[in-house]
UniProtKB/TrEMBL annotation:
<dbReference type="InterPro" id="IPR042100">
    <property type="entry name" value="Bug_dom1"/>
</dbReference>
<feature type="signal peptide">
    <location>
        <begin position="1"/>
        <end position="25"/>
    </location>
</feature>
<protein>
    <submittedName>
        <fullName>Tripartite tricarboxylate transporter substrate binding protein</fullName>
    </submittedName>
</protein>
<comment type="similarity">
    <text>Belongs to the UPF0065 (bug) family.</text>
</comment>
<keyword id="KW-0732">Signal</keyword>
<dbReference type="Pfam" id="PF03401">
    <property type="entry name" value="TctC"/>
</dbReference>
<dbReference type="InterPro" id="IPR005064">
    <property type="entry name" value="BUG"/>
</dbReference>
Length: 237
């Protein structure tokens, strides 16, 4: 019992991990270039979002773009480049002209996780990108389809143990924090569940609502927005 309670406590700590899904970055040479340009910006700015429309990062990026447009007096063009756990968007900016007109709205997935676990992420965030600002962060929640029998984390673990290999969970991409949390939960609780990867939180939430996946880890406030509007998902932890 002591070991079981200890595992649950560790799981609870995992759920409280912060999700940094709003970091602005620019190609490093462009940062100094833009700072020294007295007429910057003189044309529209492209804001690359590494995730598809409708997800948490996309929503925050569009809110930020409106603020930028009002203050910079130039259009901000949102360019969604989803895929590869955020690496497609990051590489788009890394390979862009270093002129200060291509910014990256990034998350910790493509800045800290992908360069370590994804061989396709052939970039160095510390050298290839210059951070501008942390925009937002929030804790993760364990979310389930309302028809999924378990109502708590403990019940989910018990259910998965009774049904090995028959329960699945979704994430917003391979190597993302949602994926890492799912695999950590499996390792700590000794359960066998199937991982289903998506290109972002929005398509993952759509399939969670539709019952294609049974649970997932989402950042808190986008999930609350979706669940209050649709009333078709619930949090377990």
């Amino acid at each position: 019992m002591k070991t079981w309670n200890s595992a649950l406590a560790r799981c609870a700590c995992l759920m409280a991990m912060l999700a940094i899904f709003g970091v602005l970055a620019v190609v490093r040479p462009a940062f100094a270039q833009a700072q020294s340009a007295s007429n910057w910006p003189s044309r529209p700015i492209r804001l690359v979002v590494s995730w598809p429309p409708g997800g948490g990062a996309d929503i925050v990026a569009r809110m930020l773009a409106k603020h930028f447009e009002a203050n910079l007096r130039q259009p901000i063009v949102i360019d969604n480049r989803a895929g590869g756990g955020g690496t497609v968007g990051a590489l788009t900016v890394v390979h862009a002209d270093p002129d200060g007109y291509t910014l990256l709205f990034a998350s910790d997935a493509e800045l800290t996780i992908a360069p370590v676990v994804n061989a396709a992420a052939n970039y160095n965030p510390a050298k290839d990108l210059a951070p501008i600002s942390l925009v937002s962060s929030g804790p993760f929640m364990l979310v389930a389809n309302p028809k999924f029998p378990p109502n708590t984390l403990q019940e989910l673990i018990a259910y998965a143990k009774t049904n090995p290999g028959k329960v699945n969970y979704g994430s917003f991409g391979p190597g993302t924090n949602g994926h890492m949390l799912g695999e950590q939960l499996k390792a700590i609780a000794h359960i066998d569940t199937i991982h289903v990867a998506y290109k972002g939180s929005a398509p993952a939430m759509v399939d969670l609502i539709g019952g294609e996946i049974q649970y997932a880890f989402f950042c808190r406030w986008p999930h609350l927005t979706w669940s209050r509007r649709e009333r078709s998902s619930r949090s377990l932890c």
